[in-house]
From TrEMBL:
Gene (name only): LOC113509243
Subcellular location: Cytoplasm
Domain GST C-terminal: 70-190
Name of the protein in question: Methionine--tRNA ligase, cytoplasmic
SMART domains named in the record: WHEP-TRS
Domain named WHEP-TRS: residues: 830-886, 887-940, 941-990
Keywords assigned: Aminoacyl-tRNA synthetase, ATP-binding, Ligase, Nucleotide-binding, Protein biosynthesis, RNA-binding
EC number: 6.1.1.10
Enzyme class: ligase
Coiled-coil regions, chain positions: none
Entry-linked CDD domains: Anticodon_Ia_Met, MetRS_core, MetRS_RNA
Gene Ontology MF: a single term: ligase activity
Length: 990
């Protein structure tokens, strides 16, 4: 075996270490990018095994040489190797070759190294207790940082686990021998530091891209296939199908039914929710449409259940009002993100009730529903059984002990909980300790359905994503037990049988039925999609985060199997892991992270958000949102790679050929380029078809990088000034690049639809032209010779580091903390402005009063002054924030004395009225504070609140009868109004 390499190439070190560990002999042979080792673009190192097998990816070569750890079943090894190649190595290379390193790059590199350190804190090696290809690749990349004292101090000094790991591997005999053969030293420094770690692909445009993505050595068969597609590809494309307003299955077509987990309506969706379900589903749906599949994509808000009732209680409105409010918020957020639903509906509809009840009755008729008496928590103070979300307490699971666990799940350990198992449970409404009482409920007998369910899962799970398989298998490690389908609530689908009509269906049961009812609202013929005739080929694709998998892989399929009416079951279940926020976790309940409405306010285009979220989609393990990385990917991948190539190519066409696509006469080099592009397009299609959206996006970037390399290699700006042959080559180069731009417009459309629309306008082509043929994915002549393009314009703009710093600071903490900070800053600003305005207005009043005694002249200005002082008092009250009852009572007493003294000294109302206004404002604050602390609290029962309202009403009537001074009785009126509001909220919850 031979390794072709240039000097000080750390990727070569990977290969040598792998070979030494595997006791395989390799020969080093010096090469350079100028050497004609193989045809096509140059990439080093190359591992030549024999005449038939050559590796152009250093990480792939390491896996070949050292195939010790096989984690292919969950993709962890492959994912980490990709991470090393596309993120860690380019960052290290930039540090090694730059004299000055921006602070954002330092932060990005530290974040990458923290990932390694975190893994090593849990394991002996990066992926466990065995040495793997990942250790070899990452060690070789980190090697020059570690043995350079200055760089070690800057980047690695705080990572103790990396230090232990580097030293341990450096002490191994095989590693020492490999470093010696590489002509270095494990003690460093070594070689020409300027060459260390440089991405080994010539003319690589994007510093964040993978050095291993541009592979060489295309075969004669690939070149011939590329030539055939180029010459005949357009004729092989299927005719675009006519788009119907109502999408129904079509016989003889591939019918794709796509859903994403129904978002709950108790908060604004955050970025983790968006990429986990609706954005992932939208990317896939758009891909299906450019492939010509007959596609229906439906989603909607999940509106029933205790979370809705809880939120309604918090806001003092009805559950319907909460649903209406958050449906509009969700709808607006998704529209801004350019989510292209065929229909976005909701579950609180008549169609949902009809279909849910019908399916339940059929399940009952088939013998899969039983009755059981269940011990539930009853709050005697609220006089109601407490649903899971209405009870909190200490988590009962060993080793956890979280004291704020919900009755259905612990947010700390993530385990499911039976509410009666909570330690020291308390009612979330009133804080009272509930008692355990029996309540009869209906159950679905999952145990009876388990054999059929296991048979179905075993036949289809190979098409699911790794997280979906892992969660499902975890559930099936034990036998399934009967699960309640009813509960004691008011807000939900009513149970349609006697004895249970005062109950509703458990939301886990009816929420997935929402897909069917939303399809019914959209098409009026939901059964054509969900219970199709045999002649229709319908495949169901579902997208969600892994916490939703049990309902889509176990519960809902079991329901459909029990009904036994031919419902479509999910064939492709694409679940993701979790997206974290910076160093913590996204949380809707605590308001942590960036939410959909926040993204709109940043001024960063929605396509940039879509691209970045897709690029960090947590497909096989958790990933993290980073403001720094958002900027880096925008500036390097979108702006410098994609945007640069598209704009240069179309600008050359516009300037050199007046916007007319020139004639293309491909050479062997051009067909080799097309073969490499076709590899990327084929990989793109393969990953898309399997729901690996992040992986597919990498291949789009590779197409753009190949285009940039071709542009730099051909240099058409030089050729067009040369001989006739040169001009022909130059025009061909520009023509090929324009065709690549058209291809990119198609490949990008699922990810950045707005940008794709702009590209189509610049190319002057219709969407129907830019299609893909998944059976023959390749570059074709999208643009005929002589086609006139539109006006080229830049597609992306740079995101400056200072903007990212401001956004990172703005969205730190929780939503409530941010709101309080903004309100405080706004109030402080208002106070300053009002004080200045009062000073100016006061001076104006004094001058007017000094010049005339005519009250009609100066009274309007006095009124303006009084209004300004009133506004100032309110603003000061807001900026000071809530005060304690004791401090407010003291302030009121002091202010009352001040008012009495002023009234005793003058009858001029303009003098003492502002102080009276301040007194009234203080009394209002006191009333609010008393309402929060005085009895009866909002934890009272309906009866006690009604009694308190009657007593407070008598008090108000007596005060109004004894005095006309509003300042005396208004605080008591405020208390009465607050009591009535609490009563209304409590009645809603019941």
């Amino acid at each position: 075996m031979k390794i072709y390499t240039n000097e000080n190439n750390t990727s070569t070190l990977k290969l040598l270490i792998a070979a030494k560990l595997a006791s395989k002999k390799v020969e080093l042979q010096n090469a350079s990018f100028a050497d004609d080792v193989f045809t096509g673009p140059r990439a080093l190192p190359l591992l030549e095994v024999d005449d038939q097998l050559t590796f152009f990816s250093s990480n792939a070569a390491v896996q070949y040489l050292f195939p010790i750890l096989d984690l292919s079943t969950d993709g962890q090894c492959q994912q980490m190797l990709e991470w090393e190649a596309t993120r860690l190595q380019p960052a290290v290379a930039t540090v090694l070759t730059s004299k000055s390193v921006p602070s954002d790059l330092k932060q990005a590199l530290s974040s990458l190294l923290q990932t390694v350190d975190d893994l090593l804190s849990k394991y002996k090696y990066i992926l466990g207790d065995k040495l793997s290809a990942v250790d070899i690749s990452v060690w070789s990349t980190v090697y020059p940082l570690y043995y350079n004292k200055e760089l070690n101090q800057l980047y690695l000094s705080q990572f103790v686990h990396i230090k232990r790991w580097v030293d341990e591997l450096a002490a191994a005999k095989a590693v020492q021998e490999a470093v010696t053969q590489w002509n270095g030293s494990v003690n460093g420094p070594f070689g020409a530091s300027s060459a260390l770690g440089i991405p080994q692909v010539s003319s690589l445009v994007s510093p964040v891209g993978s050095p291993d993505e541009a592979e060489l050595g295309v075969t004669a068969e690939e070149i011939e296939a590329a030539k055939d597609s180029w010459l005949n590809g357009l004729s092989k494309l299927d005719e675009p199908s006519k788009e119907e307003k109502v999408v129904l299955p079509i016989e003889g077509r591939r019918n794709v039914l796509i859903t994403s987990a129904l978002p709950y309506v108790n908060n604004v969706p955050h970025l983790g929710n968006i990429i986990g379900c609706v954005l992932s589903a939208d990317i896939f749906a758009r891909y299906c449409r450019i492939c010509g599949y007959n596609t229906l994509f439906v989603c909607g808000t999940d509106e029933y259940g205790t979370a809705t009732e809880t939120k309604a209680l918090e806001e003092g409105v009805t559950p319907r009002q909460i649903c209406d409010k958050y449906f509009e918020i969700h709808n607006a957020v998704y529209r801004w993100f350019d989510i292209g639903f065929d229909y976005f509906g909701r579950t609180s509809t008549d169609q949902q009730t009809e279909i849910s009840q019908k399916m339940f009755l059929k399940l009952m008729e088939n013998g899969f529903i039983s009755k059981q008496s269940v011990d539930q928590l009853l709050c005697e103070k609220c006089d109601r059984f407490l649903a899971d979300r209405f009870v909190e307490g200490t988590c009962p699971h060993p080793g956890c002990g979280y004291d704020n666990a919900r009755g259905d799940q612990c947010d700390k350990c993530g385990k499911l909980i039976n509410a009666i198992e909570l330690i020291e449970p308390r009612c979330k409404v009133c804080g009272h300790k509930p008692t355990v009482k029996p309540s009869e409920q209906l159950f679905i007998e999952l145990g009876q359905l388990e054999p059929s369910l296991r048979t179905w899962i075993s036949s289809t799970e190979h098409q699911w994503s790794p997280p979906a398989r892992a969660v499902t298998r975890a559930w099936l490690r034990e036998s399934l037990r009967a699960r309640a389908v009813t509960r004691d609530l008011k807000w939900g689908v009513p149970v349609p049988i006697d004895g249970f009509r005062n109950k509703v269906f458990y939301v886990w049961f009816d929420a997935p039925i929402g897909y069917l009812s939303i399809t019914q609202v959209a098409t009026k013929q939901y059964e054509k999609w969900w219970k199709p005739d045999k002649q229709y080929d319908v495949k169901l694709y579902q997208f969600m985060a892994k916490d939703n998998v049990p309902f889509h892989a176990i519960m809902f399929p079991a329901t459909c199997l029990g009904i036994n009416e031919g419902h479509v079951l999910v064939s492709h279940l694409y679940a993701t892991e979790y997206l974290n926020y910076e160093e913590g976790k996204f949380s809707k309940s605590r308001g942590v992270g960036v939410f959909g409405t926040d993204a709109q306010e940043t001024g960063i285009p929605s396509d940039v958000w879509r691209f970045y979220l897709a690029s960090i989609r947590p497909e096989t393990s958790d990933s993290s949102f980073s403001w720094t990385e958002l900027g880096t990917r925008n500036n390097s991948e979108l702006l410098n790679n994609l945007g640069n190539f598209c704009h240069r190519s179309l600008s050359f066409c516009a300037n050199a050929f007046k916007g007319v696509v020139p004639e293309i006469k491909p050479t062997q080099t051009d067909y080799e380029l097309m073969a490499l592009v076709n590899r990327e397009v084929a990989a793109y299609v393969q990953h898309m078809e399997k729901g690996r959206l992040r992986e597919a996006l990498r291949h789009v970037l590779s197409v753009s990088r190949l285009g940039n390399q071709h542009m730099q290699s051909e240099q058409p700006w030089v050729l067009l000034k040369g001989s006739d042959d040169d001009k022909e080559r130059g025009s061909t180069a520009i023509g090929v690049c324009c065709q690549l731009v058209a291809l990119l417009a198609a490949l990008l459309a699922p990810y950045v639809p707005h940008t794709a629309r702009r590209l189509r306008e610049q190319l002057n082509v219709d969407r129907a032209v830019l299609r893909l043929q998944p059976r023959n994915p390749s570059l074709i002549q999208y643009l005929p010779v002589g086609h006139k393009i539109g006006k080229p314009e830049p597609l992306f703009a740079k995101i400056e580091p200072d903007l990212l710093d401001r956004l990172r600071a703005k969205y730190a903490g929780t939503q409530s903390e941010r709101a309080n900070k903004e309100n405080g800053e706004s109030a402080n600003q208002t106070v300053a402005q009002l004080e200045s305005a009062i000073a100016e207005q006061g001076e104006k009043v004094r001058q007017l009063k000094a010049s005339t005694k005519d009250k009609t002249v100066w009274q309007p200005e006095v009124n303006k002054l009084l209004e300004l002082k009133k506004q100032l008092a309110a603003a000061q009250a807001q900026s000071n924030g809530p005060s304690s009852v004791a401090s407010l009572e003291k302030a009121i007493a002091d202010q009352g004395d001040k008012v009495r003294q002023l009234k005793a000294t003058t009858k001029d109302k303009s003098v003492w009225q502002p102080e009276v206004d301040k007194l009234l404002a203080l009394k209002k604050q006191l009333a609010d504070a008393q309402a929060q602390t005085s009895a009866p609290a909002p934890t009272e029962s309906v009866a006690s609140l009604e009694k308190a309202i009657a007593e407070q009403g008598d008090k108000v009537r007596k005060l109004k009868a004894s005095t006309k001074d509003k300042a005396v009785w208004q605080p008591e009126v405020n208390v009465l109004l607050d009591l009535k509001k609490r009563l209304a909220a409590l009645q809603i919850s019941k």
